[in-house]
Amino acid sequence: MTVARSFSGRGAGRHVVVIGAGAVGSATAIEALRAGLRVTVVEPGEPGGPQATSYGNAGWLSSHSVVPPALPGAWRKVPGWLADPLGPLALRWRHLPRALPWLLRYLASGWTEARVQRTADALRTLLADAPALHAGLAAEAGVPQLIERRGLLHAYRSREEFEGDALGWRVRRRTGVQWEEWPAAELRRREPDLDARYTLGIFVPEAGHCRNPGAYVAALARHAQEAGAQRVAARATGFRIEGGRLRAVRTDAGEIACDAAAICAGARSGPLAAAAGSPVPLESERGYHVVVEGASVGPRTPTMVADGKLIAHWMDGGLRAAGQVEIGGLDAAPDWRRAEILHRHLLSMFPALATQAPEAVAVKHWLGHRPSLPDGLPCIGASAASADIVLAFGHGHVGLCGSARTGRLAAQLLAGTAPETALAPFDPARFR
User: Fold this and answer.
1) What is the pLDDT of residue 5?
2) Is the dihedral of CA 75, 323, 403, 203 positive or negative?
3) What are phi and psi of 148, to 5 degrees?
4) Domain FAD dependent oxidoreductase: where (predicted)?
5) Binning pLDDT at 50, 70 and 90, where does residue 6 land?
6) Can you say how many angstroms the Cα of residue 205 is from the centroid of all Cα atoms in its chain?
7) Is 149 strand, coil or helix?
């Protein structure tokens, strides 16, 4: 598929500014061009670079990740989160006063199974065909090898441990997710390097993964520019709105006159949304990863283990383990002990890793910021100050996966056409 065929007649429509060149912003730019709009992308950093959230993503295109983080009874775990700074979900005491309103809404969103189910039903509309959508975008951008569609695996130590997650799997089944159970012998056959303590595998065939999220996002951003988008290396700071109509996006390099804009700035979208009349309770769920370069053993299928709450799979640069949630804000220094925990879990999952000579491997750490709203749903919709400004951020743990569909929806709103998916659950006005 060539750029000329994909974007014939590009640039003939209204001028839109896409704020952010991450996964959501790049997908939005591509789809806006496809709709015939003239596009300018505002992004201060290098798309897909180490500063970008998608760079360190776990890479899962988990179309079944419809269960929000907070489930009934989560409030009982808050004291443990506060007491254990190295647990799977940790709260930094210094940030707690600022995060408390978000945390209360977070707990309330999963108070009952019915609420969890409503969230899952909405998320499924964004994620159900995500692997196929990403495969199409990757092929169009010239990097088809970065998207693989061969399923994802959840590994459990026992049937009882799996039953402990019964609510989540019950909710998934109601949204249409199907899976296969691998008993111990089948799991050993499929995953010979996985520690023998894991005796049950839950395999989701429909899902996929990305082998290099940073390179993928960079390719999408490059594809958008090749298709006609202009890029301005600046940071958006606000908007000029007159009579309810957007006249310009303000940046630290001056104003950009335009007819519409999309806020796709990830965890840094909050001030821009407020400037557009739609303040939302956006928080950073700080996530860590570790990459073992030179690793010779690991999963055949991208794998999440229930006991460590982490994902492990092969990236182009080595074996990556990603996970952890730390509520500590955008500016606090990294706590690299959390990355070391991931490394220890990885060695526990694949014991043969520990037998490799230290000089044969290199271990690298990374920290990024997931843009999270307390109810587990992103914001996709018009701002209160102007229908010309579209909010498209807040995907939490499913930003990469949900970016392809979100880009289509945001572009449809920018073009003034009916969105292909009902957007009521994602309306920014739900936080008023």
Assistant:
1) 39
2) negative
3) -120, 140
4) 15-413
5) low
6) 20
7) coil
Give me the residue spans of the domains in the chain: 15-76+111-431
Report how far apart, in Å, the C-alpha atoms of 299 and of each of 186, 196, 200 are. Answer: 14, 13, 15
Structure tokens at 394: 């807040």
Structure tokens at 142: 């010239």
- Calpha distance 32→225 (Å, rounded): 12
Phi and psi, residue 201, nearest 5°: -115, 140
The answer to whether the Cα torsion of 310, 209, 133, 387 is positive or negative is positive
Average model confidence (pLDDT) for the chain? Answer: 94
Residue with tokens 């998207």: 147
Retrieve residue 371's tokens. Answer: 């843009």
Greater model confidence, 89 or 112: 112
H/E stretch holding 213: helix 213-226
CA dist list (Å): 273 to 24, 265, 371, 432:
16, 10, 13, 13
The per-residue pLDDT for range 103-123, each reduced to its tens digit, is 999 999 999 999 999 999 999
Tokens linked to 341: 């925990």
> Rounded to whole angstroms, how far apart are CA atoms 380 and 394?
9
Superfamily of domain 15-76+111-431: FAD/NAD(P)-binding domain (3.50.50.60)
Does position 254 have pLDDT exceeding 60, yes or no? yes
Torsion of Cα atoms, 97 then 101 then 106 then 111, to 10°: 120
Rg (Cα) of the chain, in Å, rounded? 21
What's the order of all strands across the beta sheet hosting 379-382?
230-232, 38-42, 15-19, 260-263, 389-393, 379-382
Residue keyed to tokens 């799977």: 88
